[in-house]
Amino acid sequence: MRILVVDDDPAVAEVIAEAIRARGDAALVSLDGTEALDILGTTPVDGVFLDLVMPGLGGLATLTRIRNQHPGIPVVILSGHADEDQAREALALGAVEVVKKPAALAHLSEALARLKGE
């Protein structure tokens, strides 16, 4: 699988990407929503791990655009700042799961397994 990791914190994005790679999958990293949409327009991916709180195009706006442009791509929301209303909104917009940061890598692994349909 090829997973796109979208997080405005480069260190966090790389930790998540490395966890994905450790499972034997490919990971691409984007540091903002606009760049993520550009990548999705040119590169096929099997899923997205998307930070909810980012400057510029935030996670919910990015999720909305992903759903409109790429409705079949599963999206897992990652956030350390999401309140319950934001989490519910993300799920209503089509996210498959909301994982709170800092999450144990096991939670990310479980979310990745769900993206794979395991």
**Helix-strand topology string:** EHEHEHEHEH
Q: Roughly how many Å apart are the termini?
A: 13 Å
Strand content: 15-25%
Provide the low-confidence segments as ranges. none
* Main beta-sheet strand count, sense and barrel state: 5 strands, parallel
Mean pLDDT: 88
> Per the principal axes of the C-alpha atoms, what is the gross shape?
globular
Strand numbers in spatial order across the main sheet: 2-1-3-4-5
Helix content: 40-55%
Query: What is Rg?
Result: 12 Å
Oligomer: single chain
The strand count comes to: 5
Structural class, by secondary structure, is alpha/beta
Q: Counting H and I runs of at least 4 residues, what is the number of helices?
A: 5
Keywords for this structure?
118 residues; alpha/beta; five-stranded parallel β-sheet; 5 strands; globular
Would you write up a description of this structure?
With 118 residues, the protein is an alpha/beta fold. The mean pLDDT is 88. The protein has a five-stranded parallel beta sheet with strand order 2-1-3-4-5, with helices on both faces. The two termini are 13 Å apart. The chain is globular. It has helices spanning 10-22, 33-42, 59-69, 84-92, 105-116; strands spanning 2-6, 26-30, 47-51, 75-79, 97-100. The chain contains five helices and five strands, in the order E-H-E-H-E-H-E-H-E-H. Helix content is 47%, strand content 20%.
